[in-house]
Amino acid sequence: MPRSTAPEFTRAKVRPPGADFADYCCELLGSLGEVQAKRMFSGWGLSVDGLTVAIIAWDRLYLKANAKTQDHFASAGCQLFEYEAKGKTRRLHYYTAPDSALESRAAMQAWAELAMRAAVAARKPGKRSHTLAAPS
Predict the structure, then answer these.
(1) Could you give the CA distance from residue 13 to residue 126 in angstroms, rounded to a whole number?
(2) CB 30, CB 39: distance < 8 Å
(3) Considering all CA atoms of the chain, what is the largest pairwise distance in Å, rounded to the nearest integer?
(4) Distance CA 55, CA 96 (A)
(5) N or C: which end of the chain has fewer CB within 10 A?
(6) Is the pTM of this model over 0.85?
(7) How does the average pLDDT of the chain come out, rounded?
(8) Which residues are within 8 A (CB) of 46 and not within 5 positions of it... i.e. 6 or more apart?
């Protein structure tokens, strides 16, 4: 069989929707260490040392919160993560990041630390522990 003289084309890797924003959010949260983004449903999960500290849904960054940290988010006007499933509104302990925190890693640092504290508190027993430096 004769060889084709047509040039070979390589298939370019197509990045999933939202990958650029996910990369940017990883940079914003970088004060916590190496942040990994993984596709999750129609969004992204962002984790540090196996602890999920944030999610991206509907092109918005949501930071992990708990009973001790949620007042910080609420008083800053952040919105709780909600979605509809089987006719019911479901809520998760994640809040939008303040708009001002989306401007730089330095502006995000305090919010990232709150998210990490909530993630550490929520970890399952027996998981590797993550230590945080004292806030400055």
Answers:
(1) 38
(2) no
(3) 72
(4) 9
(5) N
(6) no
(7) 88
(8) 22, 25, 26, 29, 35, 36, 37, 52, 53, 54, 55, 56
Q: Read off the pLDDT of residues 13-71 as tens digits, 9 standing for 90 and up.
A: 776 667 999 999 999 999 999 999 999 888 999 999 999 999 999 999 999 999 999 99
- Got the DSSP string for 53-108? EEEEETTEEEEE--TTTHHHHHHTTPPEEEEEETTEEEEEEEEEPPGGGGG-HHHH
Beta bridge partners of 55: 45, 62
Name the residue among 34, 52, 129 with its Cα closest to residue 94. Answer: 52
pLDDT in the model for residue 4: 57
Question: Cα(122)–Cα(51) distance, rounded to whole angstroms?
Answer: 9
What are the structure tokens assigned to 106, written together?
């330095």
Report percent pLDDT > 90 for the chain. Answer: 74
- Pull the structure tokens for residue 89: 């509104």
Task: Go through the chain and tell me how many residues it has.
Answer: 136
